[in-house]
Design brief:
With 119 residues, the protein is an all-alpha fold. It has a domain at 1-64. The protein contains five helices and no strands. The protein is elongated. The chain starts with a helix and ends with a helix. The model has no long low-confidence stretch (mean pLDDT 81).
Amino acid sequence: MSDKMREEFSAWYLAEATQSYGETVRSQAEKNLAWVHPDGSFADPMLRLACLAWQAGRELLATEDAKDADRYRWLSEKFGVTNLPCAVERILGGDVYVADGKASIDAAIDAAMNKEVTP
């Protein structure tokens, strides 16, 4: 884990611990963060598990963000040759109902990207 990531996790952990259990736990939470193995991993088993879950969540978000970025780039490249401006205006104006919201829109864009069909 990089120093930056450790700092971000530590800040998140302290905020969560004190929000959930009050300021009285801050001292123990800081001790838990300072208790590390020689390899730098957290020695407290629950903290180690929390850190692994936090890292997995960040990786998932990064993957989802990358997919959204790919969709946006594809749509931007196709913008001039699609009906996208019209479709977006109709969705925002309430003229078109998208049942599943983002999931449906993502699926439609993914299908179009896979087929290289303009929406």
